[in-house]
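User
Please review the sequence:
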Amino acid sequence: MHLLVPANWDRELILPLSQIKADIEIYGVLPTSMIGSGGSGPDIPQITTKQAEEYIRLAHSAGLTFNYLLNAPCMNNMEWQEDTHRELVQHLEWLSNAKVDSVIVAIPYLLELIKTQFPHLRVEVSTIAHVDSVARAKFFESLGADSINLHSNINRDFKLLKAIRSAVNCELGVLTNTSCLYQCPYEYYHNNTLGHASQSYNPLNGFYMDYCVLHCALSSISDTSQFIKSRWIRPEDIHIYQEMGIDFFKIGGRAMPTKWIINAATAYSSLHYQGNLHDILNNFSPKTINTTPNLSSTQIATIASPPKVYIDNQALEGFIDFFKKQDCLSGCSQCNYCQEIAD
């Protein structure tokens, strides 16, 4: 099994992950950069480029590969301005010299640029690129993608997953532990706010309000079926995706503590988890992030903490079978299955 596991830059994470019986690839990113990522900078520990280089060497010495995130969905057109384009290429040169094994992108132009100027780097397409059709998968493969993280909205659309697998030769992966709303209306906006908040050129110095997560939390609390509709995959159901030809499985949670990451990686590598499934999902708490040059550290104010959720993983045996025939995209309003499971 090939697992893509989040790195929170804690050195204590390396050894336990190296002892898991799976092909472990870890992924991470600096708190801020000119390109940015799919997570806000303040959620990520503050480290220097030198510390990042040391961490990558440590991962390699433990037999792990390292995947660096370049997956902000928008660079505010900085990629086309001469000075910032030069800085972009220098950033990619730093990654190459740091010996990262691969990078994850969401912007098609970055994929083409990297494949042209740094052909030795493997390039993976992010879930943020919303690859949710045969046409999109073929498009990114034609640009040179070595692998694609399929969008989590299609995690239970088995007819479509099989069609995409048949249509492309590149590696395909799925996000296993998403807690996002199914077909979330805030997703595009949320990804953009996080991407810009993690960019060094952000005129607000990383400030943002977690409007999107606040609404997602309220939606789930008021409609418990949303906890079930969310496109997570149980560790016990991974084999279904392996049999379809899915090559790797991504665990979300770069902002999570080391113990949590090890617990989630162990669960998915062993294909078994006893207890509360919600404990290994990548859950978010709404917050306000405020970073200014005059502060010695980032100020994070939690706005609201959702109530404790318990999803009995063992009670979900056979849960996934329903979706092998159900068309959720067109039939959700006539179906009550997820609400019945939630009840």
